[in-house]
Write a structure and sequence with these properties.
heterodimer, A: 327 residues, mainly alpha, MetI-like fold, 76% helix, B: 279 residues, 11 helices, globular
């Protein structure tokens, strides 16, 4: 100790200071590098909006906001409007939701409230496998299995009973809004089920258990759970809507691809996503391509708003649970 | 009163029955689709189909070897780009992202997960195909990487957050700098989970078609040139399904059987691996 001069003590202090500093520098560098990668992913979203806005300028200058409600789609005369596609996307997705939501919530209730663990794990895995099947495979199955089946057996029966409604008029050839909606419903069942199951598991068990203790039936207790989780379940449904609106291949293959607004659900239609899929490489003029990119921008904005809203709703339920558990 | 209770009990048990039936319905839908693929696909599937090249309509012995190779090449390009970016990005979110800025990044990354894949295709066309002047495997791989990155980032983040705090403290107490703690201890501890997430992301992009329509397009011959268009299983299925030929329809089903087997194998393997971990 005594042999150590003040100078060497200083050197020691200095070197350890440098070591620390070098360590800090490496750490700063590490933080910076990982930050760059995270920024790169997040930045892609911003870059997409900028690129698409730039690439739809011709169409935007020519038609302005009226692009959204114009009904004409005529590449030859370079007249474009998005309404038939917005209509097709909206109606096919809504049909999908009408079928998928009751089924998904039913499956979630069964998984959370009724099934023992040994049954709920395999069931939820199998339901999630529906999401693993590629979109193009649903399309193939839709063309060759579902569409002929609906055309020959289901649609004629609907028409013989409800044929007087404009919704079910015309001669169904199997490809149209209804078929697209049915395919979509199968495709969104997994996401709606997964999120609804999560939020129902996240809400407190005390209320339904108190209800059971007071003599409520199993369903009445379950209804309380559904009530408490309803904003999260709404989020799940809206997430399903976002998925359905952006779905491309399967819908393109079964919706018939005709830009028209028709009251009948059996008639062919067109969606935003399938218009881009079918026509993007065939767009011969700049205005045509810009109109397609503007369609893409509309789709982007719709899915962005839907997803953001849905996520807020789901977070509201699951995060509230987290706080409760800590308190 | 007694009647009322009876009615309530009947309602309750019928609701149990209905939710059970819905579950059966969803699983039946899965089994019907998979069963149909297996039966129809198996009829046209043989060794020749897997190793031969496509031949003109009417000629026997047509195959999809180029599409299988193409899909594997596209997945490799996407993984080489998407996995490192996704994993390091996820590392940032887990280690440094517990603040407002991290939440903004997380929100944008989640938004990217929700972007329809057709939009990603349009974007990749704008930034890759147009400047290069032609369709290419590289552009296809990049568009798949874009789909992969947010998924990998978020699963990586979740897996890293599962690593106990005590392991971090132990590493720092032994004098390790933060970067060594993150890469050598935390990421290594989470490696199994991160690999699982990566496999699921690969399964997801293997089935993508929409982003390839304007990027990788298709190619009728075997190709390993990343600067040229390349075939893929999904594009081939789409192409064959839209054609008027019975023979090509059969090939579409056989190609589907190959693709779906691949994807389900990954999903089921991941499920078995993660279950073993929990037990």
């Amino acid at each position: 100790m005594n042999s150590m001069s003040p100078a060497s003590a200083n050197t020691h202090r200095l070197s350890s200071f440098f070591l620390k500093r070098r360590g800090r520098l490496a750490d700063q560098l590490f933080k910076l590098i990982t930050l760059l990668f995270a920024l790169a992913i997040a930045g892609l979203v911003v870059l997409m909006i900028v690129e698409m806005a730039r690439d739809s300028s011709l169409s935007f200058e020519k038609f302005g906001p009226s692009f959204i409600w114009r009904e004409v789609w005529d590449p030859v005369r370079e007249q474009f409007g998005a309404l038939p596609f917005i209509y097709g996307s909206a109606v096919s997705s809504i049909i999908g939701l009408i079928i998928a939501v009751p089924v998904s919530i039913g499956v979630s209730v069964f998984l959370v409230e009724h099934a023992p663990r040994s049954l709920s794990t395999p069931i939820s895995f199998l339901v999630q496998l529906l999401a693993a099947i590629p979109s193009v495979v649903y399309g193939l199955w839709g063309i060759f299995v579902l569409a002929p089946l609906l055309r020959d057996t289901v649609y004629p029966r609907i028409q013989s009973t409800f044929g007087f409604l404009p919704l079910f008029k015309g001669t169904p050839n199997g490809l149209g809004l209804m078929t697209a909606g049915i395919i979509l419903s199968i495709m969104i069942i997994p996401i709606v089920t997964a999120v609804a199951t999560d939020v129902m598991r996240a809400v407190s068990r005390t209320q339904p258990e108190a209800a059971l203790a007071l003599g409520a039936t199993k369903w009445e207790a379950t209804w309380i759970v559904i009530q408490n989780a309803r904003s999260g379940i709404t989020g799940a449904v809206i997430l399903g809507l976002g998925r359905a609106i952006g779905e491309t291949m399967a819908v393109t293959m079964v919706i018939g691809n005709r830009a028209q607004i028709s009251a009948s659900l059996f008639d062919p239609s067109y969606t935003i996503a399938s218009a881009i899929a079918n026509e993007f490489t065939e767009a011969t003029t700049e205005t045509y391509r810009h109109a397609l990119v503007e369609l893409g921008l509309i789709l982007f904005v719709i899915t962005f708003v839907i997803n953001a809203f849905a996520r807020l709703l789901v977070w509201g339920v699951t995060r509230g649970q987290g706080k409760g558990a800590h308190a | 009163m007694h009647n009322n209770l009876k009615r309530r009990k009947i309602l309750s048990s019928s609701m149990t029955l209905i939710t059970g039936l819905f579950s059966v319905f969803a699983i039946c839908a899965l089994l019907l689709i998979l069963g149909y693929i297996a039966l129809t696909g198996a009829r046209a599937l043989n060794i020749g189909f897997l190793v031969n090249m496509p031949k003109p309509i009417g000629e026997p012995g047509s195959g999809i070897a180029n599409a299988i190779a193409g899909t594997l090449i596209l997945i490799s390009i996407a993984s080489v780009i998407g996995l490192p970016v996704g994993i390091l990005g996820g590392l940032y979110l887990a280690e440094f992202g517990s603040n407002r800025f991290g939440n903004i990044l997380r929100f944008l990354i989640d938004t990217l997960t929700g972007v329809p894949s057709i939009i990603v295709g349009v974007f990749a066309w704008t930034v890759m195909v147009r400047p290069m002047g032609h369709f290419s495997a590289l552009a296809g791989g990049v568009s798949l990487a874009i789909i992969m990155m947010p998924i990998v980032a978020r699963t990586t983040e979740e897996m890293i957050r599962l690593v106990p705090q005590s392991m971090r403290e132990a590493a720092l107490a032994l004098g390790a700098p933060v970067w060594r703690m993150s890469l050598g201890v935390v990421l290594r501890a989470a490696a199994g989970g991160v690999a699982t997430g990566a496999m699921l992301a690969i399964a997801r992009i293997a089935g993508e078609t929409a982003p390839l329509l304007f990027t990788a397009l298709s190619y009728n011959f075997m190709s390993t040139d990343l600067n040229q268009p390349i075939a893929s299983l999904t594009y081939q299925i789409y192409y064959y399904a839209q054609s008027p030929y019975e023979e090509w329809h059969a090939m579409a089903w056989a190609a589907t059987l190959v693709l779906v087997t691949m994807i389900l194998a990954i999903n089921i393997t991941v499920k078995m691996l993660t279950r073993q971990q929990y037990q």
